[in-house]
Amino acid sequence: MQAPFLVCRIPCSRMKTAVFLREHGFFVTLLKAEPDRGSMSSVKCADLSALIVDDHMIMRQHVRANLAKLGFTDIDEATTSAEAEEKMAARRYDILFLDWVMPGKSGYNLLQKCREDSAYNDVAFVMVTSQTEERHMVEAMKAGATAYIVKPFMPAAFQARIEPVLEWISRVRLKNNS
Q1: Residues 6 or more apart whose Cβ sits within 8 Å of residue 168
Q2: Taking the mean position of all CA atoms in its chain, how far away is CA 27?
Q3: How far apart are CA 42 and CA 72, in angstroms?
Q4: What is the largest CA-CA distance in the chain?
Q5: Of 44, 93, 41, 91, which is closest to residue 72 (Cα–Cα)?
Q6: What whole-number distance in Å separates Cα of residue 156 and Cα of residue 171?
Q7: What is the pTM assigned to this prediction?
Q8: Is the Cβ–Cβ distance between 115 and 144 less than 8 Å?
Q9: Closest CA to 80 of 110, 52, 53
Q10: What is the C-alpha separation between 93 and 110, in angstroms, rounded?
């Protein structure tokens, strides 16, 4: 299993989390209070396909609305990991947003399964979850998550977490095209 390169940006207000992640071998940069709007990657959100996997309709709608604000147009949804696996078998997605706790297989288990398959090495996996303990974040990152977003979130915080994911996608695409 090849884990993706991870850039983890954490708000300065979460210094304890940053220290914890550094102690566990992660590269961490701290964000300014406001995200730098000029740092958006060369990837166009409208060119990316996203799959939101969450059993709560309101949360799927919230993630969808935030993705649309960023310019995503190709957004699909699944309510379970099993449904997500069916959709992933039928078509390719560039980025998946996974809830941790769902009926049946968890989003975390889906992440682990996908990261064992090299076909998903260039797919970004974003955990969007109410799991707030730092150990969950570390487990997700070690399993190959590209980013970790804690629910509930504000649009500015969502964008701040997605920008490094878009940068990661840009780097992976450049590497694959070289």
Answers
A1: 4, 5, 6, 7, 124, 146
A2: 16
A3: 14
A4: 41
A5: 44
A6: 23
A7: 0.78
A8: yes
A9: 53
A10: 14
The token duo for 39 is 């740092």
Q: Tell me 162's DSSP state.
A: H
Structure tokens at 123: 């797919």
Domains of the chain plus CATH, in order, are: 8-33+41-177 (3.40.50.2300)
C-alpha 116/C-alpha 143 separation (Å) is 9
With contact defined as beta carbons under 8 Å apart, do 4 and 124 qualify? yes
Which phi-psi region, left, alpha or beta, contains residue 71 (left: φ > 0; alpha: ψ -120 to 50)?
left
- 10 Å CB burial of residue 173 (0-12, 13-18, 19+) is middle
Nearest to 2 by CA among 107, 147, 121, 110: 121
The HSE-up count of residue 80 (CA atoms within 13 Å, CB side) is: 6
Residue pLDDT, tens place only, 124-169: 999 998 888 888 888 998 999 999 999 989 999 999 999 999 999 9
Answer yes or no: is pLDDT of 28 > 70. Answer: no
